[in-house]
Amino acid sequence: MDLEAVKRLVMAGESETVEFKRSTAELNRVGETLCAFLNGQGGTALIGVTPGGELVGQQVSDSTVRDIAAMLDRFEPKVQVKVERVRLAGTGELIVLATPPSAETRPFAWAGRPYRRIGSTTSQMPQEQYQRLLLDRAHAHTRWENQPAVGVTLEDLDREEILRTRELAVLQNRISAGTSLDPGEILDRLKLRENGTILQAAHMLYGTRFSSDYPQTLLKLGRFRGMTITGDILDNRQDHMHAFAMVREAMAWLERTMPLSARFPVGRIEREDRFPVPTPALREAILNAAMHRDYSNPSGYVAIAVFDDRIEVISIGRLPTGITAAALSGPHVSNPPNPLIAGAFHRTGAVEVWGRGTNRVIEECLRHGIAAPTFEERGGAVVVTFRAEITPGTRQAPSRDQVGTKSGLSRDQVSVLASASEPKAVAELMAQAGRTNRTKFRDQVLRPLLDAGWLEMTVPDKPNSPKQRYRTTPAGVKALEEAGK
After folding, report:
1. CATH classification at residue 14
2. In a domain, 212, yes or no
3. Tens of pLDDT along 179-238?
4. Is residue 285 part of a domain?
5. 105 with 28, same domain?
6. Which CATH number characterizes residue 368's domain?
7. What does DSSP say about strands 82-87 and 75-76: parallel, antiparallel, or unpaired?
C-alpha cells in the first residue's frame, strides 16, 4: 500500500473495517481490533494516525518490529496478517496491518479472548456468539448432512424422485443433458454419495423408509379454530417423508385448507380466484423450511399451522451465524446450513442461491394486497407468519395501520409515497401521516415500503445518517397510482 492509498483510507474515516492508532504504544488495542476484524469482514489497522485522521507516523526500530511480531503471535488460531511500512515526509513511518475475511477459520481469539467489531467500536465477543462460531467452523467441514447414512442403500431411496431431479436440472441447464440415468451416478453428480456410500443428505432428500433412527423427517399439518394453538383442532396430519415430498404435500394441504374467494377485476370478464395468502410466497417459505432446518436434531420437524387470522410455517433450528430475523426482510447473504440439500433444490430450479427468497416472499405478499410476513426465532425454531383472514368474519376490526387500499398499501403508506416525491426526512413523513411513535412508524410504514422497493434511502450505505432522506421510486409511483384506482 502506498501513501496515497493510505490517505484515501484515512479520508473515509474509522469504520467497521478501518481503525486508527497513534503509535505502537497501543499494540494491545491493535491486537484486539485485528481479532475483531478477523471475526468479521476483515479490515485494516493504521498505526501512526491520530483518532482525528492526522498522519503523524512514528520511528520504526528493530524493537518495534519484534513487538509487532510478538503481538501477532498471541492469536489463536494462528493468522496471516499483512504488515507494511509506508514512509512519510521526514523520518516517520506508518504501519499498516491488514487482515482478510476468514469465515472458514473464525472465531479467533487474541490473548485468550475473542473480540467483535460493531461500527467503529471493538468489544469483547459474548460467549454465546463465540460458541456458535466454533460450531460453524466445525460445521464447514463436518456436517450432519455430509456424514454416511448408516444402513441406507439405493433401494431405500425414491428412484423416481432422483430421476425427476435430473430431468428438472437438465431443463434448468444446471446439469449436463449427458448425465447418466443411473440413480447412483446422479447422486454422485450431486455429491450425495461418496465412494458408493449414501450420505444423510441424500436420505433426507429421497428416502422412502425412515426407521426410528431418522425421526426428524416429520411433517406436521394443523388447522386450529380461533387464533391460538389451544383452540379446537379441525385437521391434524403428521407423517414422515423426504424433503421434496414434504414441500409438495404441504402445498397441496394448504390449497385444500385455505378458503378460495373469487372476484372480477375491473375491465375484465374473467373471474380471478384468490387464496388469502399467495401460494408462491407460501411455497418459498416451505422450501426454506425444508432446506435450512437443523436436520441433526432428531426431534426436528417442519410444521404448518393455520389459524383463523394467520398461517405459520415453522422449522426446527436456528438462523445461520451473522443472519438475524430482522435481516431476512432486507438484502442479506446466502449462507445455507445444509449446502448439499439446498444444492439439490437449486438444481431443480426451485430456488436460487442469492439469499433473495425471503425478499420474494415479501414482494408476493405486498403484490397480493396483504401485509409482509414476519420472521422470528422462537423457542429453537424459525417461524414465518403470514397475516391474513383465513376464516371470514372472525378477525378483529383492523387498526388504522391495517386498513389498506386495493394495492395493499395502508393509508399512512399512501401518504408517505405521495409526499416523498421529493426527498423527505423521517420527521417530515411522520408529520404528514400524523404519526408520533418513531419506532412503529419505521416498522409498520417505512420498512415494508423499502422492502418492496417502493421507497428508497438517499444515503443507503448509512441507514442511520442524520442526513438520511427518503424518496418514492418509480415502482412506488406506480403502486401509488394503483392505490388511487
Report:
1. 3.30.950.30
2. no
3. 999 999 999 999 999 999 999 999 999 999 886 778 899 999 999 988 888 878 999 999
4. yes
5. yes
6. 3.30.565.60
7. unpaired
d(CA 208, CA 188): 19
Number of separate domains in the chain: 4
**378, HSE (Cβ side, Cα atoms, 13 Å):** 10
The whole-model pTM stands at 0.57
Residue pair 336/291 in contact (Cβ under 8 Å)? The answer is yes
- Crossing angle, helix 411-419 and helix 474-483, to 10 degrees? 130
Look at residue 455 and tell me whether its pLDDT is greater than 60: yes
| Rounded Cα distance, 258 and 351, in Å | 24
**Phi and psi at residue 356, to the nearest 5°:** -105, 0
- C-alpha 143/C-alpha 465 separation (Å) is 41
Residue 392 has pLDDT above 60, yes or no: no
- Domain boundary (356, 387, 418) is at 387
Question: Is 48 within the bounds of a domain?
Answer: yes
C-alpha cell at 145: 448432512
Same-domain check for residues 289 and 256: yes
Average pLDDT, the chain: 86
pLDDT confidence of residue 196: 92
Are 200 and 83 within one domain? no
Measured between alpha carbons, how far is 253 from 250 in angstroms, rounded to an integer?
A: 5
C-alpha 242, offset from chain centre: 24
pLDDT tens for 339-352 read 899 999 999 988 77
The answer on 372 and 269 residing in a single domain is yes
- CA 265, CA 2: separation in Å to the nearest integer? 64
Any domain includes 392: no
CB 224 within 8 A of CB 231: yes
| Grid coordinates belonging to 108 | 479467533
- Name the residue range of residue 305's domain: 218-387
Q: Are residues 103 and 239 in the same domain?
A: no
61 and 100 in a single domain? The answer is yes
Are residues 159 and 119 both part of a single domain? no
Mean pLDDT across 395-409: 42
pLDDT in tens, 136-179: 666 556 688 989 998 899 999 999 999 999 999 999 899 999 99
* Domain identity same for 252 and 230: yes
Structural domain ending residue among the three candidates 353, 387, 421: 387
Distance CA 152, CA 148 (A): 9
